[in-house]
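Recall the central idea of this unit: under ordinary conditions, the amino acid sequence of a chain determines the structure it adopts. In this exercise we apply that idea directly, starting from the sequence alone.
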Amino acid sequence: MQEEIESAVTQHKLDNAVKNRWINAMRKRSSSFREDMKTLNDVMRAARHPKGALSLKLREMENNSFTGFELHRRVPAHMWCVTEADIDEFVKKVALAHGAGRIPNDTHPVTGKNNEAHDHPDFGPSIHMVVKYVVVPESQAAGGMSWALARHPDGLPVNIFMTHCWEEGIYEFHRKVKRYIHGGISARTNPETETDPRPATPHIWCCFLANPQCWPRQALKELLGQDPMKSPFAKALMAKNGAGELLAKCVWLVSNHATSIYNRLWCVLELKIAMDLGLPIVFSLSSASVRRRKGDTPMPELTRNPQQKMRLNGVDLGSYKVIDQLLLGFDGVQHAECSDPDDAKLIRDVVKGSEGQLDTLIERISFANTYAMLVRFHQYEIEEKLGEAAIKDLLKGILVVDCTCLP
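Accordingly, the structure predicted from this sequence is:
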């Protein structure tokens, strides 16, 4: 193997210090020649990337364990999951860092604005800031794997796929996770309550905890690949067991106070895959129940449909003043964006031709939210306007979770 390493060092013009680190790390490993050759190929690929990728790979080898690049290669993408307890522990760690002033409120790279809710107790730092100041440094220190695989090196098979947006606040995210898991369902808003798809022990696939956020940009781009339908997101959604059954039992839609999740192209792709697979959609009612205290930081206002006009099967059902986070700033999936222009083009190619179906589904989910909110506040006249058959059509494949015992 030393001969192969020396050849690679010469080919990539690496210095002797790198060569010696590489050889010494390989000597410590108790792996087969085949595994060593795979590692050799990994290092050669890393050498073609920015310096950070090679350094991360060498550190992984020196730790003499399957971490970082190697661990994500060995454990299938649908196994990069966390539990409720993992999320509870993670949020406690974030809260400590936030309270100690270790999570700055950086300006948004696109809007140039600061997060008005950064220090709001109900919302907190955005996932962008949490990833930058907590996930990345701690993942690097752990060996370069995702937060999920650092907790479960052998992985956990997905049974819940979470669609969310990094604009949300970390405390908002946590509150909604607890609602999804512990919330109840009502026969009024869920005509088919016997089909509750929520697993008793959730294994949650959540992108900012599942993917290795500490990897160099180019390495992450390679992980996502050139085909969005073969990305970790898609693999997690489409994974099946030995009997050919989907492992993911439902898709959680986690809306937020800042923007519609469907302004993000990756969320649009996830909805398309879920739609094509027929996976149930689960959402909790909008955070209208979050109590406003005197002196609270003002929250952003709804930017579209402050009074949503509902039409179902061509029948005008009237306008209702219901805050619907799913439609915040949303004007159709064709306007959804992505931070990486290459990914944006690839995803648009996949969803091309399905935009109308996706907009219709998003609108139906939004109407289901409006209906459920009205019923929650005892405005039962909407049931008379719709009728039993229309209500079943509206809520088909959608599970509405509500929990008045949680904040």
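Strands lie at 160-163, 204-205, 250-253, 281-284, 308-312, 315-320, 398-401.
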